[in-house]
Amino acid sequence: MPMPLMPVHSERDDDDGAVSSDQRKRMDEYIDTLDIHIARREFDAATSLVLQLKQQAGATAGLQDVRQAADSHTADLARLILADLLIPCSSRKQVTQNVGLLHRLGWDKEAKGAFLAARSATIKNRTRQLKLEGNTQLYIRELAIVYFRLIRNTCEWYSELFADPTMISALIAWVRQEMAGYAVIFRRHVFHEMQRFQVIASCLNHTLAEVDILGHAGLDLKFMLDQEFFPDLTSCIRSYESRCLALLTKVASEDSLQVASKVSTENYP
After folding, report:
1. How many other CB atoms are there within 10 angstroms of residue 119's CB atom?
2. Neighbouring C-beta atoms of residue 149, cutoff 10 Å
3. What's the rounded Cα separation, in Å, for the pair 225 and 15?
């Protein structure tokens, strides 16, 4: 725990804005202590001390240089905490602590961006661990589990970490981004590979099953899914229709109707 700051009182006339040498020395010692906390990555202690320094410097005349030093240390400290927050697959406890510290430092916007970026990185890392191994249906089922359950967890964490309702738009934009990312992978392995309709239906069912779980948690993403896949389904059906018509045309053109010409007419008058 950081030691509490002692109130600074000028030994001179209060109107001249001067600070005694003893008080100046004490401020310098606090700055040195803050540097040590930051170097040791003792972020909680560093946050408490820098906030005390800013409060003390703001309430005492003649400490402009201390205010500037406190602002500079705040930025350095916040950037280090942001770097920690950007690490994917961090525990919920660690994420909560980092976001809480950034909130105390006034870096809520940056914390929000780092949190969502880390969650995107987590989804990508988990996705890379999946193996296709020739079974598209199994791959898509596992992909849907990774994407949509991490989306659900992220939404739950976000609502707890960022209570400001003005920040909800960033979460919605992030969900759309991740849905689009899922659709890109799904499209590449299902629609672009011209899978059989049975395989397409199975993959869509796996996706819908995970989306339904999100719906039970209060997050309905079916409309986003429709927006992503309806054009692909339409294109797939039209392509299948074209192939069928082309095949029928080919069969008809190659059929010499020899079987029909050999039908006996002896039984007909």
Report:
1. 23
2. 15
3. 67
253/37 Cα distance (integer angstroms): 84
Comparing CA positions, the residue from 44, 115, 53 lying closest to residue 85 is: 115
pLDDT digit string (tens) for 159-188? 999 988 888 899 999 999 999 999 999 999
Tokens 């992909």 belong to 143
DSSP 91: -
**Coil, helix or strand at residue 71:** helix
Look at the chain and count its residues.
269
Whether residue 204 contacts residue 191, with contact meaning beta carbons closer than 8 Å, is answered with no
**∠ Cα 167 173 186 (to 5°):** 150
Burial-class residue 250 by CB neighbours within 10 Å (0-12, 13-18, 19+). exposed
Could you give the CA distance from residue 78 to residue 87 in angstroms, rounded to a whole number?
15
Residue written as tokens 């059906």? 237
User: Helices 197-216 and 168-186: crossing angle, nearest 10°?
Assistant: 160
Which residue type, as a one-letter code, is found at position 186? F
pLDDT tens for 217-253 read 678 888 888 888 888 878 777 777 777 777 788 777 7
Could you give the CA distance from residue 25 to residue 18 in angstroms, rounded to a whole number? 13
